[in-house]
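Chapter summary example: a protein plus magnesium ion.
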Amino acid sequence: MVKHTATSVVTIERFIIEQERLHPEATGELSGILYDMALAAKMIASKVRSAGLADILGSAENENVQGEMQQRLDVLANEMIVKAMDHGGRLCAMASEEEPGIISIPEQFRCGKYCLLFDPLDGSSNIDVNVPVGTIFSVVRKITRGKHGEMEDMLQPGRRQVAAGYVIYGSSTMLVYTTGQGAHGFTLDPSIGEFLLSHPNIRIPDDGRYLSVNDSYEQHWDDDVKLLMRRYRGLDGGGKPLSGRYVGSLVADFHRNLLGGGIFAYPANRKSPKGKLRLLYEANPLSFIVEEAGGGAIDGVRDVMNIDPTELHQRTPLYIGSKSAVEQARQLLSGRSELVGA
Ligand code: AHM
Ligand code: MG
């Protein structure tokens, strides 16, 4: 890989081209998808930034497929991604957390060999209180033979992802992505409208600092999960205590822990036996990134990316972060299948 330091000015376009050159067989289609995602991210960032100014705050009238109220920015972000991605000739279909079924490529456009799965605006319930939100995306190759992508193409295990990434709309806008050659972060310079390489080859620290979990669900956790959380806090035979941090916006919690080390957990609980987070739009892409950064991700027992999906909006429990913290979870939780969604 071409070596870049955080001080040389490298645009995301240049970086993607350099990565593509490492694969002589590459057709440029995947690179095209990444450019288009970067463009969609800039458009969404500009809307998120002006959210307090324009009349786009608040709930849309309809409910999404998860039965949650959609925020208007969710709807906008969803549309922006679909419109930025549908005409490039690189995708054969898309799926979004905000739409019930597969999003087809309109007839007038060419179909390509990749599928895009995305959560357009994760953590959107936080928009009204000015907390960071994010976009998460995953790319897999089409495996069926027809022109258009089908359900079978979407329901591939995370191990088959060819690219994944997220955008965090925080105090600055950052895009982090992987194509399986490390995880790399880019910060949007708003004065020139470009994502610049700011975090080459991210490595998650193994001596984790943070524990991110919504412990108001503790009453619904089973005993192993309760014990695990106590150990992370340095109690009941645990090691150095982790410090509690929970934004409630997955991208923000994940991003902080990716840079600072630690673990994000959304365990299964008696009220939500499969947890809350979506395998295809949230857990898989972030698992690809964290593994590329030297960390891990499990559902309590299995590597998230080994799960065979059976439905588009499938949920999964998630333990994701520094390797040692994830292995601690695996050790304590493996052997139980009741609350891991297995
Ligand atoms: P969303 O995709 O509808 O925004 O929901 C996902 C969000 C994540 O960003 C966050 O980690 C989680 O929901 C928080 O859930 P809870 O409020 O149950 O802790
Ligand atoms: Mg989400």
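Key point: Residues 337-342 have pLDDT under 50 and may be disordered.
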